Write the structure tokens for this entry.
Amino acid sequence: MTYLFNRPETFVDEMIQGFAAAHRNHILPVDGGVIRRHKITTGQVVIIIGGGSGHYPAFGGLVGQGLAHGAAMGNVFASPSAQQICNVALAADAGGGIVFCYGNYAGDVLNFNQAQERLQVQGIDVRAVVVTDDIAAALPAERHLRRGIAGTLPVFKAAGAAADAGKSLDEVCRIAVEANVRVRTLGVAFSGCTLPGARQPLFDVAYGKMAVGMGIHGEPGLHQMDALDADGLAEMLVDKLLQDIPPVVGHSEGARVGVILNSLGSVAQEELFVVYRRVDQLFRERGLVIVEPVVDRVITSFDMAGISLTLFWLNDELEHYWLAPADTPAFRRGSVSGSLDNSEHIAAIPSAIAQQHVTAGSRDSQKAAAVILAALESAAHIVDAQRDALGRLDAVAGDGDHGIGMQRGLAAAVDAAGKARDAQAGAGTLLTVAGDAWAARAGGTSGALWGVMLCSLGHELGDVNTPDTAVVAAGVAAALREVMQRGNAQPGDKTLVDVLQPFSAALDQAVARDASIADAWKEAADIAHDAAQETRDLLPRIGRARPHAEKSIGIPDPGAVSLALIIGAVSEVICRHCV
Ligand code: ADP
Ligand code: MG
């Protein structure tokens, strides 16, 4: 249960304001997240971390000397947008290159990749190290598919300490990658988490049971079992983690291991200590050496009752960085020196993405822009009405935020499109501005992909001609290509691609028949509707839902359903305006 908030939609902004006020000595708020208050050495590498909010201390609480240089902070459980990430990265940049370090989630990968491309265009060398420590999320042979959970801390710490020691960009990346190769985590939960304003938890765990292999977004556990007592749980977690020792470590005898016992939210510190007591005994019994354990909250899932155990298999180099001093709002080790203030530098930073300048479109294109604005308003209307239903679909195997994310993205798109219309934008510009606003405000996987779709369509429509069926079909085809290229989903993977692809094919066929845009869109909308329903039978092979593939059989994909709903709503607007 979340007790204290004003309005759910302002929760994250108000949380960041309060966080920044409480930790003025450590951090400075910037557009999109926070950066270190302490001066960063000119020419050094900086580490930018980030992810959704709702995981405190991850991610903003881990910004400070010896750890991250900046954190992009998304909405609750939603990846920050590419624009937020760029803003934070530019604010922290010291001229020596940037390493993005984050947990492996589809939305984060999409948005960090986009941000990386944008910064590289500006001549900044940006690399990425994606953390994959959750052993429940995929088999060892598919480690690259695993999620990132509490194992993010050792990777962030190794990267941050190496960067502060003046290592080169190549070296910092090598060290961070090596840290990720050597870290493993497993979590369990006894109850779900309830987001601000929600009346029910994202999922339930029956009393006396526990869900093994929980994600940190309320992704349901891989299986449930009778809850164990503290010692039993310690034994289970240690046993399972010792079955997945990184191959580079070889045998465990005498190994030195950094250990993190993490509360996922509402498990008390005292309970953690009771569990840790047995973990410590087990390590001694097995001839393993624990190095500087962390028994605390490291990465949470709002108020979820659960814990995770992380083993960080050290070598000499990583042990040095694991022990190195750090001083952040939520993590302290040893003592750090130097405290020069960075705020003057901040005042001089331009925002990463300058406000788009709108040039007037032709009269014809302005008329089309007015229809597109009406279409976006109608889409917002249907998504408002279906928000909770979309959230429920997403909660089956994902994180339950699809309805909220779509609502937030569309509201921003309508707002930006309205302003563009007032500035006499043509159809192409109006769509691009709306797409950028959508992606920036919604974050998450679908936010990034919707931004890509609207922008691709906008580029094709341009600001001069009245869009006909052929141009619209070409725009939708471009949107499909871009979505598949950026998100890597293929038809059949149970994503919105399973609607976008048949929709695009139907528009292409209508062009061949010389159909009007109203007829073409209407027919294609029927096909999109059926295609969304047919995703019921598919197994998710990508995105958050993949580890819970079988749970979603019989349930359509939320992103596919919302896309078909929007196509249907737009169809009515086109029929009304384009006869
Ligand atoms: P998140 O997964 O970040 O929580 P949302 O819940 O808003 O984002 O959106 C989930 C939807 O995004 C899925 O139902 C699916 O349709 C779509 N999706 C996820 N990953 C991909 C991808 N790689 N390519 C295309 N669509 C995707
Ligand atoms: Mg989701």
About this structure: The radius of gyration is 24 Å. The first strand starts at residue 27 and ends at 30.
